[in-house]
User: Which sequence fits this backbone?
């Protein structure tokens, strides 16, 4: 199957250690490769520039993953676009993803992600859409402490046979082909999910709500390192981004009771984290950022989802943190 109607989009942020193998594999499988760099402070742009067939869009500031995806898809202007993380390396051609994505009423298709040893990244490769109970368990840390609990097993698809193709909810955004006509109909990625987390989950959830199908095919394979772009974030900023976008997703997709359940779980989880931080070491670093999350959770718990969908309180805090840390 021809890949001339498909392209590859890579969003980079301080990704220079991974970009060479990612770009070599991408360019060997597509003539249409765009890299959107979100104001990296390392030599990512220099690495990208060495691959002359890749088009670089260098943002002067970090606009976030969702906005960078929208930039890249617009620039490529193709029928299908594969979102590929900088720390992922294609091992197969695009054909299987294009075939899956071209089926009737399909919005997106994901492939199999493996680690450096060839092991399937179960629990990350494909997930079901989170429910209010799922995100409450995540906020409380229960899914980390008790990985075999039924909520976590369902969410991380630990019951699925990922050796066979099937319709799924949420393939990983690290290796996700999008049908661009559907992307346009849905208004693209929601850029209020800033700078990262939950933006692809929101897009796929909106696609499913609109009646589209999302496929998984094990015939498309990429190796994946994992979480490299957030490893350099200060812990306080990373925590605030994750909790804020978790609450934002909840406000957008859950009814009032479910939304308040998530806010209460965030309140309890962050409070426990703050207390443990005060008891276990340097307080300032351990509890930094907890206050902003607690204020947000309390405010939205009282007011409900309609009042918090613009996320202005957290947005301002995040922008302040981003400016301080050069994110």
Assistant:
């Amino acid at each position: 199957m021809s890949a001339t109607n498909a392209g590859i989009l890579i969003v980079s942020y301080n990704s220079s250690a991974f970009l060479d193998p990612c770009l070599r594999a991408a360019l060997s499988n597509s003539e249409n490769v765009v890299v959107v760099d979100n104001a990296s402070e390392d030599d990512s742009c220099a690495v990208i520039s060495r691959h002359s067939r890749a088009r670089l869009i260098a943002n002067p500031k970090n606009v976030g993953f969702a906005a960078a995806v929208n930039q890249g898809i617009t620039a490529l202007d193709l029928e299908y676009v594969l979102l590929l993380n900088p720390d992922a390396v294609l091992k197969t051609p695009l054909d299987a993803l294009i075939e899956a994505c071209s089926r009737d009423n399909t919005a997106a298709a994901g492939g199999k992600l493996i680690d450096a040893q060839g092991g399937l990244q179960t629990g990350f490769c494909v997930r079901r859409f989170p429910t209010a109970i799922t995100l409450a368990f995540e906020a409380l840390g229960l899914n980390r402490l008790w990985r075999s609990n039924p909520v976590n097993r369902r969410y991380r698809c630990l019951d699925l046979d990922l050796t066979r193709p099937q319709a799924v909810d949420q393939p990983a955004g690290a290796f996700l082909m999008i049908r661009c006509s559907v992307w346009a109909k849905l208004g693209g990625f929601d850029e209020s999910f800033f700078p990262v987390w939950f933006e692809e989950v929101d897009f796929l959830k909106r696609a499913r709500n609109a009646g589209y199908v999302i496929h998984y095919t094990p015939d498309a394979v990429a190796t994946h390192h994992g979480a490299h772009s957030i490893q350099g974030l200060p812990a306080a900023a990373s925590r605030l981004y994750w909790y804020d976008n978790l609450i934002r997703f909840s406000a957008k997709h859950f009814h009032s009771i479910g939304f308040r359940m998530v806010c209460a779980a965030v309140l309890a989880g962050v409070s426990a984290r703050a207390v443990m931080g005060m008891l276990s070491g340097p307080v300032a670093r351990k509890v930094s950022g907890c206050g902003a999350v607690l204020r947000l959770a309390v405010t939205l718990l009282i007011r409900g989802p309609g009042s918090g969908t613009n996320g202005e309180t957290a947005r301002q805090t995040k922008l302040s943190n981003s400016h301080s840390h050069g994110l």
